[in-house]
Amino acid sequence: MDIKQLRAFVVLAEQGNYRLAAERLCITQPALSKQIQALETLLGTRLFNRGRQGAQLTAGGQRLYPEAQTLVDRHLQFQQHALRVVQGAAGRLALGFGLSSFHLAPQLVAAFRQRFPAVAVGLEDLPSERQYQLLLQGELQVGFVRLPVSAPLRATALLSDRLVLAAPSALALRAETLMARFNTLPLLQLTPKRGRGLSDQSLRFIAAHQLTPNVVQQAGDIQTLLALVAAGIGVALLPHSVTHIVPTGIDILPLSGDATEWQVGIAWNPQQPDALRDNFIQVALATVQAP
């Protein structure tokens, strides 16, 4: 059964006149008659009584008309939805983000939703290393990750982050004496499995400054690490972006020198065409670059 036949049936039922229905469908009257006859043959019943009063629905036609109208409306809705999907204005967008993009990612999602309110956005906290994998597998469309990324992924930098030392306020550490006392401080670390990027960054910083850290404990997530610092268990090397979620009782001390800074950006897999993803990237870059 052709949707054109159903549409012809619905329009003729509404117009009650072959000429008016043909004009609305932008076809000739013979073409309209052919579509109606084909539909009647397929259904095995007459749908219209033809006479001086035009085309009037038969009893069977009256019973079939409501469902036919529903199907035609659904077909139109599907066409409109499909067009929005193809244009990247509808569907679902899967995003990953990390601590460094804790504030920026939601801001860019909000800007995108203003432009494309019909898009459902999923935002998941994931380590950069895991985001790389999911981008390659097609399970993420865009990731807010530590740069650089490896081919075939592509990325654009959005911001810089840097290492700081989170210390219990009770220690009353001073930034100017921090490096001299570093080796004597009980150091807390995030497990490499949970934060490979931060772990590697911390190791580069330690090596660059020829430090010998006194590691006393590891934690599986940033919140636990901060809780341990606040409890006075030790200090921790963390991204500066952690200041957004630092509880009371913790001092954030700046670090300087080599291996203290890195870039964060959005990454995607260009091998997988995706208009929805491309729209998000365009909005994100325009929002970041706006005055």
TrEMBL record:
Domain HTH lysR-type: 1-58
Molecular-function GO term, any one: DNA-binding transcription factor activity
InterPro entries referenced in this protein's UniProt entry, alphabetically: LysR_HTH_N, LysR_subst-bd, WH-like_DNA-bd_sf, WH_DNA-bd_sf
Keyword annotations: DNA-binding, Repressor, Transcription, Transcription regulation
Single GO cellular component term: protein-DNA complex
SUPFAM superfamilies found in the cross-reference section: Periplasmic binding protein-like II, Winged helix' DNA-binding domain
Pfam families: HTH_1, LysR_substrate
Sections of the chain in a coiled coil: none
CDD domains listed in its UniProt record: PBP2_LTTR_aromatics_like
Family: Belongs to the LysR transcriptional regulatory family.
PANTHER family: HTH-TYPE TRANSCRIPTIONAL REGULATOR CYNR, TRANSCRIPTIONAL DUAL REGULATOR HCAR-RELATED
Protein name: Hca operon transcriptional activator
Organism: Serratia plymuthica
Lineage: Bacteria, Pseudomonadati, Pseudomonadota, Gammaproteobacteria, Enterobacterales
Underlying gene: hcaR_1
